[in-house]
Amino acid sequence: MAGQLAVTPLGETTATDLAAQVHDALRNVATAVRGAGGDVTDIARLTFYVAGWTTDMADALWEGTSRAQESDGFSAPLPPVTVIGVQTLWRPDLLVEIEATAVLD
């Protein structure tokens, strides 16, 4: 799936902190993969693009993934995750964009 953000269907940002945006973006990943006929268990890898990434942001990132594991059925442990720091995303209020690769039968 192309990058998923912490936005509503109308494009409104759902949260201002990284943990909540990670959770909401993963919820959008789950919605997309289910819409394609799969489930989050079909996700083979995740790539997180984080605006202004520094290693001290890791706790918030993992808090958001933990929330998604609890509420949206993401596996524990997660599939392989790559975190890439970027200068900015397409709007300054967006902190993370998540790209997912799923294998559907």
Structure description:
The protein has helices at residues 18-35, 58-72, and strands spanning 43-51, 81-86, 96-102. With 105 residues, it is an alpha+beta fold. The protein starts with 17 loop residues before the first helix and ends with a strand.
Features of the shown structure:
globular, 2 helices, three-stranded mixed sheet, single chain, alpha+beta, 105 residues, 31% helix
Can I get a quick summary?
The protein is α+β, with helices and mostly antiparallel strands. Helices cover 31% and strands 21% of the residues.
Instruction: Specify the structural class.
Output: alpha+beta
Q: Please provide the ordered H/E string of secondary-structure elements.
A: HEHEE
Strand order of the largest sheet: 2-1-3
Percentage of residues in helical conformation: 25-40%
Sheet of most strands: 3 strands, mixed
Secondary structure tally, helices: 2
Radius of gyration: 13 Å
Shape estimate: globular
Number of strands: 3
How far apart the termini lie comes to 16 Å
- Mean pLDDT score: 96
